[in-house]
Fold:
Amino acid sequence: MAWYSLTVDIPEDESELAQSVLYEHGAAGLEVRDSLNQTVLTVRAPAKGEAILIAYFEDKQDALDAQEELTEKVAGSRFAVEDVVERDWSTEWRNQIKSVTVGRLWVGPPWEKPTAPKDKVCIFIEPKMAFGTGDHPTTSLCLAAVDTFMEKHPGASVLDVGTGTGVLAFAARKLGASRCVGIDNDVTSVELARECAQENGIEGVELSTKTLPGIEGKFDLVLANILANTLCELAPLIAPKVNKHLVLAGVLVPQAEEVTAAYVKCGLKHAGNATIGEWIRLEFDA
Ligand SMILES: C[S@@+](CC[C@H](N)C(=O)[O-])C[C@H]1O[C@@H](n2cnc3c(N)ncnc32)[C@H](O)[C@@H]1O
Structure:
């Protein structure tokens, strides 16, 4: 069956009105991206003060009628109607997952086990409801930094803030980290990270939903791949945990200055950047 999507960029305070118009015209499903529903890194985020609504319709005319009503009712809304190509998502999503090789590390899905390179340190991540299959630029940037640091500091202690699937903590552990802690404020992520550790036969990584003040001591390497605004908020809690080196990601190039300033203010020394496309990795020394 063919589906049609109507994407509406709209002032955020008109979002509820627009949602009811979309449902009245028969929307079968609705995705809302706004300041309350934090946008994942891989999709287009709304402009400041705006929301993005994506409504799915069986009948294209319903989508066009909804667009017409919203044009009349809400000034400043912008629209796109698109055909949604029906695909077998039960298998097709697998094609979207790419394995990555970063330095000594290889990260990929379990079904690539038979072809995973024998000369790399391999981590298998089953893509589920947690961020961190390795192929996102922010994760790759961090994996490269983990590889470099662990090569120079074998046996270092490592803290991974916002661990998601646990991928960075696992990489550090497999490359010889001693104490290795991964924390995330999302319970599901931590459950999945624990499963992932087990499936990879990785022991000794402390995974929990503890907050930073609940974690004792300092760590030679601290990693945090979270969004820029969260990194700025967490700076006074993350900076005191750094014994040697801090790696931040999840930051877009235009946000780098603000995030850097927040950590320099907390006493760390800026020690370099690296970018992949629009994403930047920031590094600091204690
Ligand atoms: C972009 S993902 C990074 C996952 C993984 N570390 C990687 O590099 O691929 C960010 C993670 O940070 C978590 N997170 C967001 N805000 C947080 C906070 N204040 N404290 C701890 N974790 C947080 C999210 O739940 C998510 O799992």
Summary: The mean pLDDT is 91.
